[in-house]
Amino acid sequence: QVQLVESGGGSVQAGGSLRLSCAASRSTSWYLMAWFRQAPGKEREGVAVIGIGSGGTPIYGESVQGRFTISKDNAKNTLYLQMNSLRPEDSAIYYCAAASWVRSGTGLLPSAYNNWGQGTQVTVSS
Known about the structure:
- With 126 residues, the chain is mainly β.
- The chain is built from no helices and eleven strands.
- Strands 2, 4, 5, 6, 9, 10 and 11 form a seven-stranded mixed β-sheet that branches. The chain has a four-stranded antiparallel β-sheet with strand order 1-3-8-7, with no helix packed on it.
């Protein structure tokens, strides 16, 4: 098990930027790590995932492709999500998740992960 703690959420106007962080209690190089989000009344949605070790090529959800960037610093055991060109529809609680292994093609599915943070709220106003 790994404990995850998100930070960096807040309120921003449309077009603005935020950077989320997720501090892990164990080495981030050991885990596949991802960001998810959940808006009120909606299902949890996969935002981005980065691989084990140095990370490889990240995978992004279609709605954030080209605007969000996932990265990790294994020396600091921290996962990041840089969010640019934010839109009101990006408003949600953002969760960090980790897994030691997932089936191919399931990296953006919440059911693939067994370690979750408590979430951080992001609100984008128009």
